[in-house]
Amino acid sequence: MDHYTTKNFSLTQSVGFSLTKARNLIAAEMDAALKDLDITSQQMGILLSMQRGTASTPFELSKLLGIDTGLMTRMLDKLETRGLLERSRSGDDRRVVNLTLTEKGEEIAAQIPKIAPQVLNARLKNFTKAEFEELRRLLYKFIGD
Q1: What range(s) does the HTH marR-type domain occupy (predicted)?
Q2: Where is 20: in which H helix or E strand?
Q3: How far apart are CA 42 and CA 65, in angstroms?
């Protein structure tokens, strides 16, 4: 079934537009909440992914977070310059760069779970538990997870 046609398509009424707008809204609110940690919401994703062992190379982070490799390199450069992570070449394959959080990076990552839920809960305050679960279910269905 086609939900959109050339006759009924409107940019501002499309699912893509709404998803982008929602993402931008959450990112701006998260960025404001993380300001005291001096990190952005995108950097938060990197730090948490590394802290939790979900990703340990730039390629894994790019794939997980949906960030192109060029932008990922620039973001990692900033985090490394700030002393939040370190890069090292793999002993098995010199093409692979391994990433590790520094002590400072670990400290900042440990503070994120005290901040992020507040931002998300504020945005979701008008949702019932059932609506929240349905939103999650539909988003997972949409992205194919």
Answers
A1: 1-144
A2: helix 15-33
A3: 8
Residue 104 has pLDDT above 70, yes or no: yes
Token code pair at residue 40? 């952005």
Cα three-residue angle 130-10-7, rounded to 5 degrees: 115
What domain range is 128 assigned to? 17-143
The total domain count for the chain is 1
**pLDDT tens per residue across span 17-47:** 999 999 999 999 999 999 999 999 999 999 9
Answer whether residue 34 is part of any domain. yes
Structure tokens at 21: 């707008």
Closest C-alpha among 82, 41, 84 to residue 65: 41
CATH of the domain at 33: 1.10.10.10
pLDDT above 70 for 145: no
CA–CA dist 20, 82 (Å, integer): 30
Asked if residue 9 belongs to a domain, the reply is no
Residues in the chain: 145
